[in-house]
Request: fold
Amino acid sequence: MARDDEVYMSALQGKSIPILTLDNKWHQLFTQTEMTPEIESLADELNSLVEKDGKLRSQTKDIKKLKKKLLGEIVPLRDKANKLGNAPNIEKEISERTRLINECNDKLDSHQDELLDLSKQIYDIDYKLMLETMKVCYERLHDNTEDIKALDEWIKRARIELKKNVIRLQESEMENYNLYSYMHQIFGPEVVDLFDMKYDPDKRHPIRRPLSGEEYVE
Reply:
């Protein structure tokens, strides 16, 4: 037995396991992850056993009803035969019903044995299906956790880089603003225009002032 199986079996020990394929929550698990071929095979086998179990139980119920009916018919027939004394026809009816009751008993015994065997098979397959389900879900959880860690690290780095770039942006905009202002004051607008240094700090390159956190206003 694999080490993982031992771990899962230990976790499941003493737990009441539902018939998984009849549990809607189990089916909902596979809206989050895919079924493996092994799970599909076990689920099909389990469904087949459950269907067979259901048919046997239904047949058992019908046989019990028939047996009860036959027993109910024998009592008045016996009373009638006792009153009439020699009544071969009634005795024949009683004998036929007795035979049918014995057949019912034989079928009930056979069904009971088969149901016990089916119950064990259903439990075993359901248990295997539970183990496979836990494996698949654990692996998906593990993979998702690794992805979450990697993405979280990437986001942290991106935030740091974003903050650095915002600072560089502010510094560059401030530098442009100051350079243009000083040039405008020293050389005058005519010289600045001569070198095609048109610059409108209020429209083209506004200074971005931080509000709070990572938000900025122009």
